[in-house]
């Protein structure tokens, strides 16, 4: 018999069930005023005393009796018999009923002279003008803002009763190591509960992380029992699936009731919702993006129902740069990066695997595909929920293309200038198509450093874009082998070759015929995804020769025969030619700081970085065009 | 010679000067990962190790050799010689190159049977799939989000280098008492620096509050000297004006240089910007709203220039409900409340005094009037910066009218249901005009409990609105005196009378003729703004009789002769008749919890609360209309 999942529940139904089963705990805790920002008042707060407590001066000047000032004028200066120097905020003695600004008072030989009458009450702040003792300052349910702190303190509030929800966080898994310890293969750093604690704190909940519990139902039961006693809600991290080491559901069933096991949403499908002692006990999948999604889509709405402050969701309507598909019947959440492209916002998806946590780090938003749909086609206008403040989107430079380390380094330098470069990964052809569709700010491409080959690529995949090209960096490509094999030796060698369509493979296939070798007759021992993999295939004996970078060959202690270079370039559409972002990118690429960063950390050739490369349409006229035409044919 | 301000500087110029004079301190501090949310990375962060560290299973199931699975099919089940049970995240031993999901495996008598072939690499997460050792996680300048915590921890980051700015906060003033101590007249609770600390923390700055310093130049100098040594920036609270006890500018001049004293902005005009040891030393006015404005408009932009994260400003375009004027040459910031009224957003101003801190608490946004303008006319479409998340505005019920305690209590009960009631204070006539202009959700009015008088008010000020009326509560009004004076006695008494146009005055003026007294012949000893003031005028001997509430008379131990009641009502336009907010308001007004809250805390009559009162146009037909017409004439 196959081991199958339990019946899946719709997320909305699971949420309704939770809201119905688990009423607000209505816990109140008192925090010091200075620690109350972001917390939610549990009770209405009333002023303890009036502010100001008595009549005080609203200006620096003199307290006067208004009837004594009657008749004063520019041509009829009047000397006052009674006047009292007061500064802003000082008490106006009871005998005075007005204040004259210091600017309107002349002092001569100790006499106080005015040239303007004062109206009764003028420049006096009456007792209780700001607030009277007993008046409401803020209602219950108010999320305290930094500037509220001043008022609350001024009105006598030094301790604030706030809504409290205590959440117990239990990490499970025999494979867990603590943050700060390097994991061995098969080990995982336990950072999910740390993240959950940080997330819940943002809603005003307090959480307690318990120690990691190994994969053992008895031990998990003990941990749940303790956590349920001490908290309003318990979250168990991992062990929620149907694997042989997934004990979370069984442990909850032992102690209480499993209400839901498995919801029709991704990532996060194998969630467990249970009840122990009438408190919610949730098992969240160990995949970090699944954890995030379920915290946001399942835990947060319950806490909001319990009276805590929701995270705000800022939406933007965007044009989807690439088609995103989804299984019918599954609600799906997909991380995306949003940036301004021309006069609209464009969004490109990141990979969806629950384990690819970097996707969420790189993203600045996410889209939701309802269970009733199969996804969205490229070009659709759809809503995106942002995970950054909305203003950030306007300074985001959305790139779609090859994500090589140099572009993330460029992003670091751009960040210093206030630009946020986001790169959604695809291959060079995908990048060129995105440029053709005008769905990205720039397309990072990895092309052979060979103009005819580049021209052919551009002509085929982005014929309308007539791109501006800027070189980020280049990398030397060649043949790595134990014995120093050359191109002509490859006819009789087992070759570890890069994937078709990648720059080194295009280069290889273009050069082989010069030595009379048909690229299709090559003996491919392995098709590799990276330079390091090609070198590793040679070191491991799988192949005799690998096509890779000089750096990868050197790292694997192999001999290296150069073939050419791959050129990492940013391609832009002509429309953005005068954009400030491009100017900044060119400045950075030409700066010594950037090239030394690339030299220190990566195996790039850093000469002629930031070089403006020739476009295509320009070249089609005159002799240069003719020469190019010939070189391609 | 009058004591005058120094030349005023435009805020933008002051800010430019500061940015130019004070380059970023570039301080870095290291914080624990779990405390890093909201902080800004000072350096790019790179992964310490690859994730996953080795090839692992992406599904629960069996690790297999893909070549062994070739040929398996629904009708050709295949028993595997080699297979290894793996759970999601577990290491796939080197000899296997694919994983088959547990759902697709049949186990019979210990044999592993499959009905589908596995592709090479299937359901295997390759080493480094999420991130490779040395890859960039986040660039410098990245504000850490809660969900980033999980990734940073997973990639080996346990301590985070973040940008640090240390701000010293020095409260000055001999009138200061600490938070939690009740101020006497002339004393002020020192909460400005607590507020400043909370505000600056939100940008990622750390601050240190020093003890309060009395008004003494020498002592202030000592405090500044110590604070400049220990911080990157020093803020002195209060003492910045031109009063006799304002020593801040002098102290800065003694130790360094005063760059600016006085800027052309309100509130916050008397700000001092100085430099001591090449560090910015700012004197902010003691008025709390001035402090807030200068923190937001002067300090925050400098800290942003220094690389800290700005507070996000969310804007909404709104229609201004009331005209807001401003002096030409002064940039002015005005707190407003914004709410949805019909199909657009409406904003009404709160009072602007720098000392009215409640205005900022009550507001959910502010408008900026540029120095080049004299304000905005009612009906203008203008941008508002919100001080709450934008979603809150959609559930804000904007009221313009009389702010009596009952409506703030109503706001507290509504908050429990997710509605945010904001009340911008004006008098009853202002409220009726706002209703006539359809610039508020509801108009709280205080009217005599006398239909003909109410009808006349409505007919004069909101003839087109044909309002729906709901009673919040009523309050008994009468004559307070030592001797039990009655209405007929007022002809020969000195009277403390409420302001013209207020409900008790309208009632008084309507009733006096019945006793042959001409309201204009009354001997008015004082025109008072509140019930308590009327009673106090009698107690203090200023008047023989005061027109006030029964509660105020009782509190002052005076005899009380009732005249009638004032009715506190919410008036709505017919368009909102079916709105969920009105339903909720009616439910609350009719609830025992609300009436007992009013009874316990305030002097309302709470019978017939939430009563739907007759409208006007309906009454114009039939006998009731005739009766009303007669009773008015």
TrEMBL record, chains A, B:
GO biological process, one term: Mo-molybdopterin cofactor biosynthetic process
Keywords from the UniProt entry: Molybdenum cofactor biosynthesis
InterPro entries for this protein: MoaB/Mog-like_dom_sf, MoaB/Mog_dom, MoCF_biosynth_CS, MoeA-like, MoeA_C_domain_IV, MoeA_C_domain_IV_sf, MoeA_linker/N, MoeA_linker/N_sf
Keyword Flavoprotein (UniProt): no
GO molecular function, one term: molybdopterin molybdotransferase activity
Coiled coil (residue ranges): none
PANTHER family referenced in this protein's UniProt entry, alphabetically: MOLYBDOPTERIN BIOSYNTHESIS PROTEIN, MOLYBDOPTERIN MOLYBDENUMTRANSFERASE
Name of the protein in question: Molybdenum cofactor biosynthesis protein
């Amino acid at each position: 018999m196959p081991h199958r999942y339990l019946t899946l529940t719709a997320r909305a139904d699971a949420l309704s069930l939770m809201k119905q089963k688990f009423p607000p705990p209505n816990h109140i805790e008192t925090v010091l005023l200075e620690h109350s920002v972001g917390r939610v008042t549990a009770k209405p707060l009333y002023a303890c005393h009036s502010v100001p407590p008595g009549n005080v001066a609203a200006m620096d000047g003199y307290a006067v009796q208004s009837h004594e000032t009657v008749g004063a004028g520019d041509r009829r200066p009047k000397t006052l018999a009674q006047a009292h120097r007061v500064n802003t905020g000082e008490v106006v003695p009871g005998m005075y009923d007005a204040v004259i600004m210091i600017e309107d008072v002349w002092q001569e030989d100790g006499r106080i002279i005015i040239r303007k009458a004062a109206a009764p009450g003028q420049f006096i702040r009456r007792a209780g003008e700001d607030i009277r003792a007993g008046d409401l300052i803020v209602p219950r349910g108010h999320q305290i803002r930094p500037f509220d702190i001043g008022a609350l303190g001024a009105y006598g509030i030094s301790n604030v009763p706030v809504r409290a929800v205590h959440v117990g966080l239990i990490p499970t898994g025999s494979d867990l190591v603590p943050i700060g310890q390097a994991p061995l293969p098969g080990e995982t750093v336990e950072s999910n509960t740390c993240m959950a604690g940080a997330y819940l704190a943002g809603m005003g909940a307090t959480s307690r992380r318990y120690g990691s519990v190994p994969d053992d139902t008895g031990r998990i039961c003990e941990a749940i029992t303790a956590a349920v006693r001490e908290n309003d809600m318990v979250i168990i991290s991992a062990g929620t699936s149907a694997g042989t080491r997934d004990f979370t559901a069984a442990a909850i069933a032992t102690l209480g009731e499993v209400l839901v096991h498995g919801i029709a949403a991704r990532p996060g499908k194998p969630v467990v919702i249970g009840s122990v002692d009438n408190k919610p006990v949730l098992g969240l999948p160990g995949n970090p993006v699944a954890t995030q999604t379920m915290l946001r889509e399942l835990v947060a709405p319950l806490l909001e129902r319990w009276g805590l402050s929701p995270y705000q969701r800022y939406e933007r309507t965007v044009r989807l740069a690439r088609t995103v598909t989804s299984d019918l019947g599954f609600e799906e959440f997909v991380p995306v990066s949003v940036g301004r492209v021309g006069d609209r916002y464009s969004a490109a998806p990141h990979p969806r695997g629950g384990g690819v946590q970097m996707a969420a780090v790189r993203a600045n938003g996410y889209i939701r595909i309802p269970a009733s749909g199969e996804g969205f086609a490229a070009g659709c206008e759809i809503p995106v929920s942002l995970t950054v403040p909305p203003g950030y989107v306007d300074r985001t430079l959305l790139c779609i293309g090859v994500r090589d380390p140099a572009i993330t380094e460029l992003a670091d330098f751009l960040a210093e200038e206030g630009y946020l470069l986001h790169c959604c990964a695809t291959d060079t052809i995908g990048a060129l198509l995105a440029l053709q569709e005008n769905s990205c700010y720039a397309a990072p491409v990895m092309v052979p450093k060979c103009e005819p080959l580049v021209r052919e690529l551009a002509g085929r995949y982005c014929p309308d874009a007539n791109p501006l090209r800027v070189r980020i960096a280049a990398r030397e490509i060649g043949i790595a082998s134990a014995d120093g094999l050359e191109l002509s030796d490859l006819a009789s060698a087992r070759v570890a070759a890069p994937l078709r369509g990648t720059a080194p493979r295009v280069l290889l296939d273009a050069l082989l015929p010069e030595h009379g070798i048909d690229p299709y007759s090559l003996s491919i021992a392995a098709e590799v995804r990276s330079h390091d993999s090609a070198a590793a295939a040679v070191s491991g004996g799988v192949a005799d020769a690998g096509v890779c970078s000089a750096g990868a060959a050197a790292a694997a202690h192999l001999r290296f025969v150069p073939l050419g270079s791959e050129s990492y370039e940013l391609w832009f559409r002509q429309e953005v030619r005068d954009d400030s972002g491009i100017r900044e990118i060119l400045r950075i690429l030409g700066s010594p700081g950037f090239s030394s960063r690339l030299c220190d950390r990566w195996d790039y050739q850093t000469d002629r970085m930031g070089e403006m490369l020739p476009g295509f349409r320009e070249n089609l006229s005159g002799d240069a065009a003719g020469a190019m035409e010939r070189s391609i044919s």
